[in-house]
Specification:
Elements (H helix, E strand, L loop, with lengths): L10 H29 L6 E2 H7 L4 E11 L3 E4 L18 H12 L7 E6 L2 E6 L1 H9 L4 E10 L2
Parallel strand pairs: 1-3, 3-5, 4-6
Antiparallel strand pairs: 2-6, 4-5
Helix pairs in contact: 1-3, 3-4
Length: 153
């Protein structure tokens, strides 16, 4: 849906537009999964705990509120099965939450910052996976995030 058109929607149109957006993202995710399977490429969102097992940690510290690039968000603490590597939805049970976030974007609602862990130059979502999914699908380049940086050698 074109952002220039989002100011004149009725409730019903807004509901339908967000349903259409989810369906488009879900089908796009399915097509990516099929292409990855055929090409034998990994399309999985990285699980934070698996990454932590393989990277030595010295600790972590709170960095604060920052604008981060959505393209650098590559994993999740707990929702790595619900989204693919591009944060496209993999599960239909995410539809309701995804659509409500999408409607908020249509209505110019300011959503709270996401919570992330930063490991090197990559980010892992602690809270806000659906917001990341919708933002990336809409082409949003940056997001506000509360950042905890993991200290690595």
């Amino acid at each position: 849906m074109n952002d220039d058109q989002n100011t004149n929607y009725t409730g019903r149109q807004l509901f339908q537009a967000s349903r259409d957006d989810f369906t488009h993202a879900y089908v796009k995710g399915f097509m990516r999964a099929m292409r990855s399977w055929i090409q034998r490429e990994n399309n999985d969102l990285l699980p934070y705990d698996e990454v932590r097992k393989h990277i030595p940690m010295r600790g972590q510290h709170y960095v604060g509120l920052q604008q981060i690039e959505t393209e650098k968000i590559i994993g999740s603490v707990s929702r790595f099965n619900d989204f693919d590597r591009a944060f496209l939805p993999r599960q239909s049970h995410t539809r309701g939450r995804w659509e409500s976030i999408d409607r908020a974007y249509f209505q110019d609602v300011i959503l709270p910052p996401i919570d992330v862990y930063k490991v090197g130059e990559a980010y892992f979502v602690k809270d806000g996976n659906h917001r990341v999914s919708v933002a990336r699908e809409r082409g949003q380049a940056y997001m506000d995030a509360y950042v905890v940086e993991v200290d690595i050698p």
